[in-house]
Amino acid sequence: MKLPRKMRVRKKGTRPVADENGGLVIKPMDQFEVKALFGGDVSWYTPTNVTLWMALTVLAATALMVIGARKRAVVPSRGQSMAEMTYSFIYKMVEDVAGHDAVRFFPHIFTLFMFVLFANLLGLIPFAFTTTSHIAVTAVLALTVFFTVTALGFILHGTKFLKLFWVDSAPLALRPVLALIEMISYFVRPVSHSIRLAGAMMAGHAVAKVFAGFAAALGAAFFLPILAVTALYALELLVAVIQAYVFTILTCVYLKDALHPSH
Amino acid sequence: MAETAASGPGMPQLDITTFPNQIFWLVVTMVVLYFIMSRVALPRIAAVIADRRSTITSDIAAAEEFKLKAQEAEDTYNQALADARAEAHRIIEAAKADMQAEIDVQIAKADAEIAAQTAESERRIREIRDNAMSMVSEVSNDVTKDILAAFDMKADGRSVTAAVSARLKGGA
Amino acid sequence: MEGDLVQMGAYIGAGLACIGMGGAGIGVGHVAGNYLSGALRNPSAAAGQTAFLFIGIAFAEALGIFSFLVALLLMFAV
How many CA atoms lie within 13 A of A86 on its CB side? Predict the structure, then answer.
């Protein structure tokens, strides 16, 4: 009776297969595997599906922002107005959330948004690889934001930046406790920042895969899971955009803390 | 369990051996994307948006100017209208005055004619009356003479005339 | 036999972890519902608060995703 453990580690295929006992094996996590494009082992520079889909992300972002807006028309075409809407949307977000002096970080935040948005959206294409579903990727993004923001806070405000943790409006007795809580929540930021994005992406794709597996297994009733997958896909589209938005707006919130630590 | 080791952990996200690869390509991607965005895309779109804003501003200014011009034209038109009205009024007044003068002249003429005719008529009436009067006194004299003659009373013409005229005057 | 017990524990744990998603659902519902009732009271101020709506939803949703992650870890990584 050691079957379950064995069936999880059997040679990976994309189709669910019934094992010898008639049980159903769906491998929802296979889609997240990093594979070398041209075979062989994955070393640090090997071109992998990560490389491919990140390159496609760059291409898609470039297509929207550079090719879409190439005519520089005063009366914009559809592509150009989409590019301009994206631009003004992020610009307004940076200005509203992080303050007017945060505008000099606008290109960085915009790059972050475009990468996350297009990585999420491209990941929804069937058989695609979702780069943002990997903790390694989102953790690097979140840690970069975290360290940049922290360094920026100390550079701009010196030790006054630590006032962020010392809540002046609270009673004196409570302040050390609050400082501890604030400190913990500050250091948890990159964790939640990265796991939120990766988790949301992974969850949606895994659930879609599980439902798709049901479709293959149910036979005549195959259309039920397919309906579910369709509904799920619409939700995932929403989630992809919202997670990119949330990732960016949280970056803006953290940036605001660094620029104006005293609130 | 040899298979387990070969295929790594169940979650590819936790397969540390692929981390350097992912991080390397992520850094490359982000740098490339950052340069494309900050050097090409964003300045271009910012320029387009600024361009549009200035076009709109200048268009609004032009529209403002046109509005002023229209206002001016309307003022000129109103002025011309008022002038024309005043002119028309003046002409009407002049015509009225002319007509009044003409009417006055005509009325005066008519009045003079009427007065002349009245005077003429009165003169003729007076003449007729005088004639009648003189004829009445003549007749009266004659009648008196005849009556006196009939009564065989002698009377000279002069006293009869005086008496008759006195009588007539008193009766009249 | 021992492996089976571990397996069973992991699967039961994964199922239990999914309870956390209900909490996340309650949280997201609270955020969105309160936003909606506030927006209906003062519709003119609603547009300015959508950013906070999404931040709030993201924070609430993150906890649900953490529990899903725990479930996944139990299923595939333990």
Answer: 30
